[in-house]
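Lab manual, section 2.4: Encoding a predicted structure.

Procedure: take the sequence of the chain (425 residues), apply the prediction step described in section 2.3, and record the output as structure tokens. A sample record is shown.
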Amino acid sequence: GTNTPNRSHTNIMSAVTMTSIVAPTAKPVGRVARHQFGAAPATFGKGNSSKTVMMSRWKGMDEDISDDQQDIARGRNMVDSKFQGGFGLGGTHNAVMSSSDYISDGFKDVSNMTDEGYYISKGFMDRFCVHIAKNFMELPKIKVPLILGVWGGKGQGKTFQSMLIFKKLGVSPIVMSAGELESGNAGEPAKLIRQRYREASDIIKKGKMSTLFINDLDAGAGRMGGSTQYTVNNQMVNATLMNLADNPTNVQLPGQYQVEEIPRVPIIATGNDFSTLYAPLIRDGRMEKYYWSPTFEDRVGVACGIFKADGVAEKDVEVLVRTFDGQSIDFFGALRARVYDDKVREWIAATGIEEMGPLLVNPKRGSKVTFEPPKMSLDILLQYGKALEMEQENVKRVQLADAYLDGAVLAGEGGSSNTSQSLLA
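Recorded output:
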């Protein structure tokens, strides 16, 4: 007679694997109805050995343990080219994502950063640690501000100190910069803030501390005088940060409106002047503010870290910091880089200008550019420091834009377009 569907578990094969295609196993006796796949346990194998597999009716639809991108890459050229879409990289046989695409653009890896020999201000460290700890604690009937705003003068090491502290605390920060707070598309930066916040929240969910770190918040979302164009994105960025501060565990993306509690993520923002931000955002319940103005001890400590590898004595560093008391901390980093100029000039002279390009961009193995680090004495540092200061003075004094914008300033008979005369003025 005709074969009828056999419901016995010995006659049902619920799954086909790649190995079973290569080396076929014993065939089932009866014909199997399509709707019965996965409905009951199956036994398959050879001889006396057998294996029972329990499978869901919807196996493969409710669970996917494969990596689609790897499957696409493995399957290339296994079928006729007419089934593989476009030619070249556009074909469907090419994976569209690489392994780096799975990593957030905002993820900052500080694991390879050394904090050895670098100075961390005690006051800075204290404020950071207290803010992060309070945000991870459940304190009874206390509303902890979600945002810590670190602000102060330019080049004082706010970002670098922050990264050193993240390294010390074992925090994996998700980083945003001021340039990401504006876009040609309305609402895009606000969506990006929520997305990065949720990425940081996922890191915390996996058992590792994380924060959302926003560089130069005032430059991206503040109003720098009446000439700054105020866009809907400036408004949405301020509003989104206010909303995050009020509802830190309920952060939804557009199109996802289910109420799902996520771990709270402390937000740390740096800037130069937070008075340019929307006033309700910087109120005390939402943002804790910390004005970073390094003391003389802080400046000496950071400068000692900068010159430690060069063997400059601490007393010489103190003289240097006192001499250039009006300069920001990054001045000393620029000063150290400037001392290398003579060594670089010697290398260029020895190599030749024509041969320089290939050695710098595409050096052969073993021909990497190396030279002895220059000796840094106090006299040399003071000399280069004065040269840097002179360049700053020229920028302040010789303001050619003022002359050029007043009218058509041409030399004519009695005037001068020779800028060297401007330096002497």
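Check your result against the sample. The beta strands are 42-44, 51-53, 147-151, 174-176, 212-214, 267-271, 287-291.
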